Amino acid sequence: MSKNLNNAAMRNVAICAVAVGSLWLGAGQALAADPVSFQFGVASQYVGKGLGKSDEEPSVSGEVTLSNGGFYGRLFASTADLPQGSDAEILTTLGYRTTVAGYGLDMHVINRDLPGTRPGIDANYTEFEVDASRRFGPVSTRFRVNYTADGFAASEEAWWVEIQGGVSLDSKTKATAAIADRSAENGNDYRAWNVGVKRKLDDRFALDVRWYDTDEHRFGDRYDGRLVAALTLAL
Q1: H or E stretch at 22
Q2: Residue-wise over 83-107: b if at least 16 C-beta within 10 A, else e?
Q3: Once rounded to an integer, what is the mean pLDDT over residues 181-199?
Q4: Segment 14-38 mean pLDDT
Q5: Three-state SS across 3-14?
Q6: Which residues face 175 on adjacent strands?
Q7: Strand locations in the chain (E)
Q8: Strands 124-136, 190-200: parallel, antiparallel or unpaired by DSSP?
């Protein structure tokens, strides 16, 4: 058992090095662009759409974003550990941000790839996502709709609908909570939620501590509740 765990840990470290190294290479080539931003992070677990995606092991991630007016492109990579063999997740996003009638709109297309997935399993798919956000007094809100026509593995058409609310506790600390509904053809339907606090430690570092849970623990460990701490560095 310990040998398998050590092998998994070594594999994740190797994936991390490749992912972060690739992002730094992309960063070096993109320095002429304005503006460009980078973010690197380490978390006690990797979570996506409310589910554990790193087999309760720590994960590392890197992200680079290029913006031009309302348009932007983003490359994100994280270590992962999924039952289908995936040991990383890479998201390439193209989007546009604007404001309509007082609402912030963020419309984007995401290509999601999961390297290491066993042969014969569909591990690359496209998602279409729209965020609408607005502040009501001290409360910030965001409504998200995510759709894919052909999802991961055996999943086909799938929807993720989420609403999030947040309030600033002080100039550096914000508490947020979200609830979402997941429905998927040939996949598991469930409801997920999270609640947590994010604090800026300084101009670059931030710490997020959050509880994630779902209403379908019977589907397996990935659907159980979990407390996750994530430290990020923004450049």
Answers
A1: helix 2-30
A2: eeebbbbbbebebebeeeeeeeebe
A3: 97
A4: 54
A5: HHHHHHHHHHHH
A6: 167, 197
A7: 36-43, 47-48, 51-52, 59-68, 71-79, 88-100, 103-113, 124-136, 139-148, 158-170, 173-184, 190-200, 205-214, 226-234
A8: unpaired
pLDDT of residue 34: 60
| For residue 81, pLDDT beyond 70 | yes
% of residues, the chain, pLDDT over 90: 85
Fill in the amino acid letter for 166: G
Q: Which tokens in the block code for residue 101? A: 């009638």
Cα–Cα distance between 197 and 210 in angstroms, integer? 6
Query: Tokens in use for 202?
Result: 């300084």
Using an 8 Å Cβ cutoff, are 203 and 18 in contact? no
- Taking alpha carbons only, the member of 152, 141, 225 closest to residue 177 is 141
Task: Indicate the pTM of the whole model.
Answer: 0.84
Regarding beta strands 173-184 and 158-170, do their DSSP bridges make them parallel or antiparallel, or are they unpaired?
antiparallel
Count of C-beta atoms within a 10 Å radius of residue 43? 20
CA distance 36 to 45: 27
On the question of a cis peptide bond just before residue 35, with omega within 30 degrees of 0, the verdict is yes
Question: Collapsing DSSP states into helix, strand and coil, what is residue 167?
Answer: strand
Distance linking the first and last C-alpha atoms of the chain: 39
